[in-house]
Design brief:
The protein is an alpha/beta fold. 38% of the residues lie in helices and 11% in strands. It has 13 helices and 8 strands. Strands 6-5-4-3-2-1-8-7 form an 8-stranded parallel beta sheet, covered by helices on one side. Helix 6 links the parallel strand 5 and strand 6. The longest helix is centred in the middle third of the chain and has 17 residues. It is globular.
């Protein structure tokens, strides 16, 4: 056991090669990776086609990769945050899909500027009530991604059947503050700022319980030197509250290019599939979040192919998705 732990520690810090072929079955992997996917409301029609492939053709997918939850929100949700929502109000389709595939649903209610007067919002309360009821019925709890402590306290009291995720929109960049967030009993998961992703030496100081709550944002495209990330998120919160405000203008290098997966892959914070298998899972980290609910379903497909599907089956998945006449990927 001591030899194994030393071997893993050396592998994490890159002192010896520790490679696993992602196309082969992994026999001694400490755990599976739980992925949390974007677009529960935004891309519901896409998931109606993709999830049957995941269920019925498991040989196409990595055995170490598991879809644990899908997150999102309908348009015009007062409590919304992170990204401006554009999902449809198709709650019955959403809950049916989650139940059929035994996947947890998460409402993205990460508005950072919630005030007491906003807590009575009927649409958001009704959504929470339906998600709680559905989770109690299926036995698979649903959750809420939250920023505001005021909203968190309200939800914990009114909807105790839901679980809660600390949003990355808090932009916690101090490691000691991150540890305090992980130690809060309110949260089942904490999505840290993406700039912690490659600080493996610090991350390995966390205890087992803290590691199990870490949910890494794997494919962030944002510049690691960004100083305006919190302001950017606050701008989205203001828009969700209906305030008349100008768009936040990104001043980061290349910020005018928008999201590019190829650019994200060059980001120092990027976590590849190989990184997950070779570094994060052996170190005790099992939760990984894919961003992208404000992007198109075509790029969402590329994310899922990259992280979940074995290369030799990429074309089969693309054919199944592209040839479905009900989908508009572009």
């Amino acid at each position: 056991m001591i030899f194994y732990e030393n071997f893993i520690n050396q592998a994490i810090y890159g002192k010896i090669p520790y490679k696993i072929d992602l196309g082969e079955e992994i026999k001694q992997m400490p755990a599976k990776a739980d992925f949390h996917l974007p677009g529960l409301f935004e891309f519901i029609e896409f998931y109606k086609v993709f999830l049957p492939l995941y269920k019925n053709h498991r040989e196409w997918f990595y055995k170490w990769a598991n879809i644990a939850s899908i997150y999102g929100a309908p348009a015009d949700c007062l409590w919304g945050g992170g990204r401006v929502g554009f999902g449809q109000d198709n709650i019955s389709d959403v809950l049916s899909l989650l139940k059929e595939y035994e996947i947890s649903g998460r409402l993205t209610f990460s508005n950072s500027l919630i005030q007491k007067k906003h807590l009575a919002d009927k649409k958001c309360n009704d959504l929470c009530a339906l998600f709680q009821k559905a989770g109690n019925s299926s036995g698979i709890k649903n959750g809420v991604i939250v920023h505001s402590d005021l909203l968190l306290e309200y939800l914990e009291d009114k909807f105790p059947g839901l679980y809660f995720v600390s949003s990355t929109t808090k932009v916690i960049t101090d490691f000691d503050l991150l540890k305090k967030e992980l130690q809060r009993k309110d949260f089942r998961f904490v999505v840290p700022d993406f700039r912690f992703n490659n600080q493996m030496e610090k991350l390995c100081e966390l205890n087992v319980a803290e590691k199990s709550k870490m949910e890494f944002l794997v494919n962030e495209c944002c510049w690691t030197g960004c100083k305006d990330r919190k302001i950017c998120y606050e701008n989205v919160s203001r828009k969700s509250l209906g305030e008349d405000c100008a768009d936040h203008i990104c001043k980061a290098p290349g910020g005018n290019e928008g999201y590019l997966f190829s650019k994200a892959m060059e980001n120092p914070s990027f976590i590849s599939g190989e990184d997950i298998v070779n570094r994060y899972l052996p170190a005790g980290f099992v939760n990984f979040k894919i961003e992208g609910r404000s992007l198109g379903s075509a790029i969402l497909l590329e994310f899922l192919l990259y992280y979940l599907v074995k290369p030799q089956y990429h074309l089969k998945v693309r054919e199944a998705i592209y040839l479905d006449s009900s989908l508009d990927l572009f």
